[in-house]
Design brief:
337 residues, alpha/beta, 11 helices
Length: 337
Amino acid sequence: MNKKISALAISLAMSIGLTHSVNAENTPDSSVPGTGSRAEAESKSKTAATKQELLAPWNEMNQQFRSAYALARSDKYSTSGPLIIQKEDKLILDYKGKREETNIIPAEYSLLKSVAHIPLTIFVILEGADGKALSKPTLERLNNFRKSYSIASKNLELWNLSDECLKRQHLLIDKTSQFIDEIEKAGAIDSARLMEYTRQAGPLVLENAYEAISFELKAIDEQMKKWQATIPKDEWKRLHVAVMSGHMPREQNSAMLYFQKLLKQKREGQNIIYGEGKNEELYAIELVSTHMLDKDIAVYFFKDPWRMHRDLLSDGAKRYLKKHPPKRNSTVSTSSQ
């Protein structure tokens, strides 16, 4: 992969302040009583239009900033050290124009995760059905799902799992089947019984999660050792890692925990960066490049390498809100409260 990427311009937080629309601030609403005469409204509207015209050359100038920033970010990445991207089931090394990819999800991981999803599936099927008679579609979904995991469970003995692990899988499946039989017979489900079932399944789910992530982290660690052995020590010190995942697993993400321990870093944002919501490699590269460039900006302008991790407008926002705290509209009627 060519590190000299044509980067998309991600503007600095300070540029946000320059591109705020002035329309809302300067254009009156003539339909609201008390806004003045029609002539006054037209005058204000003309002033707003004039300001938009005056802003045009500044917007043009600001585009040069965006282009310069994008180019600087691309140059920063072209001279950087190795980059490792973790996304979904892959670990990718981008180093000196070469790309290497490996799968880090063993089949055992997927098996244990799938079994753990059995009680979770039952829960989401029954969520919201508390105290209600089970509908025909709900009963069909329950039976179709039971058929599905019953067929899959026939090969559990072929996985060479430990006796304890194998017993746990059967226990989860048996408890689920018994629970389905019980609620089908009752024709309804109450929240107390659903809670009892899920609380019994919870520890078994977590134990499956422990064993599953153990398989994955072992695979990641083995691959990292192989790559580290091929990269000079001075280059390895310049390593950056981008973990690409969704919003909900952001807090204490398992891959983040591994890389933070490996690189001995307590917080995200230095050499280990979390990318939320996107899995594209280009986005990972842009994200890492942005962090590297913004760190230089933060040091040069503010003497704080972490300053650009915080919205540049945040200090001003706090100062404004301290002087002008939001107040509830006193005209709101009590009937609407």
